Each structure stands twice: as C-alpha cells, then as structure tokens.
Amino acid sequence: MDLLPQLDRASFDLILLVWVLLCVISAAAMHFAGMMPISNREQRSGLLILGDIDKKTGWIILETPVLVTVVFCYLAGVQASGSDINGSVVFVAAFFVHYFHRALIYPYRLKVKGKRMPVLIMLFAMSFYIINGYIIGYYFGAFKAYDSSWLADPRFGLGLAMFVIGMAINIHSDNILINLRKPDETEYKLPRGGFFRWVSCPNYFGEMLEWIGFAIMSWSIVGLVFAIWIALPLMAQALNAHRWYQKHFGDQYPPERKAIIPFVL
Ligand SMILES: NC(=O)c1ccc[n+]([C@@H]2O[C@H](COP(=O)([O-])OP(=O)(O)OC[C@H]3O[C@@H](n4cnc5c(N)ncnc54)[C@H](OP(=O)(O)O)[C@@H]3O)[C@@H](O)[C@H]2O)c1
What we know:
mainly alpha; globular; single chain; 265 residues
C-alpha cells in the first residue's frame, strides 16, 4: 500500500510554482500591512477571531508536526521511487535538526511570561510548515538521489558551511534577545553585541543564511523554493521590526544599523 498518493514530477513542479507565488503574495502583504505576526510588539486584535494561546505552547504546537511530516513524506517518496534510502537523507536530517531545536528546545528558553499568540497565526504557521515538510520530504525521497561523491563537491562544502554558520548566528542572536530580559520581564530593550552591531534582526539574517546554504548544499529546486519561503517573509518582517526599533528608541538607536543584511538592507 502506498504511504501517500504518488505524484509525477510535472505535478510536483506545478505545486512548487504555486507555492512560490503564494510566498511572494504573503511577503508583500506583510510588508505593506506592516505585519510582524509572531511578535508581541504590537496589538493584533484583528487576528484574534479564534482566540489566543500561551506563546511557548503555541510555538511547540506550530513547529512539532513538521518533524513527523518530513520523515513520513521522505519515506513515502522513497517508497514511490522504488529506490533505497540514499545520500538525500543528509538533507532531511539537516532540516530535522533545525526544526527539532526550533520546536522542542527554543520555546522552553523564551522569556515570554503572560504573552499570547493568536491561534489563527499558530494554525497558519503550522500549515505552512506541514506543506514545507511534505515538499522537502517527498522531493528528497522520490526525485533526488545523491551518492557519496556529492560530499566532495564544492557546492556541498560551501552550502554546508553557510548552513552551519547561519545556524550559529541565528542561535547566538536569539540568545542575546533572550538574555535581555530577567525571568519575569516582558518589555523590549535595545539589543547590542554580536551581529546586532550591524542589523536589527540578526536572528533572521542567520536563518536566511542557513536556508540559502541548504539550497546550495543540496543544489535542488526544493532547497531554492524553501530558501525563498524563508527569506522573503523574514525580510518583510525585519524591515517592519527595524522601523519599530527606530521609532521606539528614537535617537538612542544606532543610526548605522541596517534591518537584516549587514551594510545592505
Ligand atoms: N517570525 C517568523 O515568521 C519566523 C519564520 C521562520 C523562522 N523564524 C525564527 O524563529 C525565531 C523567533 O522568531 P521571532 O519572529 O519570534 O523573533 P523575534 O521577534 O526576534 O523574537 C524572538 C524572542 O525575543 C524576544 N525579543 C525580541 N526583541 C526583543 C527585545 N528588543 N528585547 C527583549 N526581548 C526581545 C521576543 O519577545 P516577544 O515574544 O515578547 O515578542 C521573542 O520572545 C528566530 O530564530 C527566527 O529566525 C521566525
């Protein structure tokens, strides 16, 4: 029995195209509406039609299903292709490690006492991650095989270095933000140090670098699509957060600091 309905490559590519178009639309909407959907910096009363949920719990619920989805869809893809598990498992493992941290380690460290997340945002984000888990898992299982020679390819080495450095910048910057607050504090402070010297949202910069690295190390269309899905919404949110910092801290805010890409944006 098939684990999932089999898809031919042309249908899969059509799904990827529609998915990228949706990304462009949603990033543009975030940009023009000035939205930071996960942040508590501003009131989001319009998003509360389904109520809200404790922020840590919301993070865990929205991020955990992708862990199961990506593994299940990878195995379904391998079954559909009639091949064996091959080097493509490296990319599914890299994806899994990132989301294991995001779903099951990061939320426990947050200092967000009393903060809430709209259930609507949680469900949107969860659907987004489930679809991406499907796309990544099924593609690497069904359509792309790698042998050990790929490990010696410069694209793999360069992409892996970007992935690891990006993850280090992301976690280090998130740590700086977490450490700005004492356990019961909830207000926003002016972050300094690390990549905050150059940008307002270095955690987003690190995340972007990570997934661009993933696209390069896997040299795959699906890696490119996922990098776009991460980069465009994060750029839109970073520009909004940057404007918020400048307004909130006024003259105290370092004027040379960019929003997300050092010296550029
Ligand atoms: N946002 C997205 O769409 C998205 C997409 C993909 C990946 N991610 C990743 O998920 C992680 C969290 O994303 P996020 O959008 O929640 O990041 P964020 O807005 O930078 O917030 C991260 C945490 O730090 C706190 N914080 C932010 N600025 C602060 C300040 N100036 N002073 C004190 N505390 C501050 C936030 O508190 P509050 O909770 O009180 O706001 C939140 O708990 C990042 O690593 C990001 O790369 C996010």
